[in-house]
Amino acid sequence: MAFPGNDANDDLPLRLGGRVLLFDEQNRILLMEDSDPADPGKGSWWITPGGGLEPGEDPAQAARRELLEETGIAVDGVHGPVGTSEFLLTFRGVPTLQRDTFFHATAPAGEGQEITLTTAEQASLKGSRWWSLAEIESAEIESAGIGESHVPIYPANLAGLARLSQATRQGHKLR
After folding, report:
1. Could you give the CA distance from residue 76 to residue 64 in angstroms, rounded to a whole number?
2. Which of 14-23, 111-120, 135-144 has the lowest mean pLDDT?
3. pLDDT at position 117
4. How far is the C-alpha of 153 from the C-alpha of 138, rounded, in Å?
5. What confidence score (pLDDT) does residue 171 get?
6. What GO MF terms are annotated (predicted)?
7. How many CA atoms lie within 13 A of 165 on its CB side?
8. What's the pLDDT score for residue 34?
9. Where do the structural domains in the chain lie, given as residue ranges?
10. Which residues have CB under 8 Å from 143's CB, separation 6+?
11. Residue 29 has what pLDDT?
């Protein structure tokens, strides 16, 4: 198996993405239940709204666009970046190295309780849910095989990214 930084990955296509840690008024984070329609036996997993860059986009623009496409929620801007994640996946049947840049935003007051998926997003996204940081931490433990059930949540360090986002949202400077 190849890992980021390993020469075996040199031949893999690189897919760049932008993702949003979207916080609501109760400081919960929106996660989307995603799946691969090309591989229904693979199951589903939870991930932040976001996706691949389109030509001419930077990660922040992609994160904002994908948030609107996947949720119907428009934000004035995204802040950050607060972190990155790099992992191997099969994207549209092709082994791919995915590199995501994470930003944070706050849902407009009263928005986000009813998520609207576009027709294209309905093919892979099964739903959404607002998660507390404690729920995310618990799911990460279970995903690591420590808990009783397996709840796939990505990236594996989402709780850490959420803590960084909360700190920057509260005005703390990152060094």
Report:
1. 9
2. 111-120
3. 65
4. 10
5. 64
6. hydrolase activity
7. 27
8. 84
9. 11-169
10. 150, 151, 152, 153, 156
11. 95
At 2, the pLDDT band (50, 70, 90 cuts) reads: very low
Task: Find, among 87, 101, 102, the residue nearest to 162 by Cα.
Answer: 102
Q: Cα dihedral sign for 97, 103, 104, 107? A: negative
Q: Which pLDDT score, from 0 to 100, does residue 20 have?
A: 98
d(CA 74, CA 95): 32
d(C-alpha 78, C-alpha 139), whole Å: 25
Structure tokens that stand for 57 in this block:
């986009």
Predicted pLDDT at 3: 45
How far is residue 121's CA from residue 99's CA, in Å, rounded to a whole number?
Answer: 20
**Which residues, at least 6 apart from 50, have a Cβ–Cβ distance to it below 8 Å?**
17, 18, 19, 20, 62, 63, 66, 67, 70, 100, 102
Which of 83, 3, 25, 26 shows the shortest CA–CA distance to 50?
83
Query: What is the Cα–Cα distance from 125 to 75, expressed in whole angstroms?
Result: 21
Q: How many CA atoms lie within 13 A of 34 on its CB side?
A: 19
Q: What is the mean pLDDT of residues 128-144?
A: 82
What are the E-state strand segments in 13-147?
A: 14-23, 29-35, 44-47, 50-52, 79-91, 94-106, 127-131
CATH class of 11-169: alpha beta
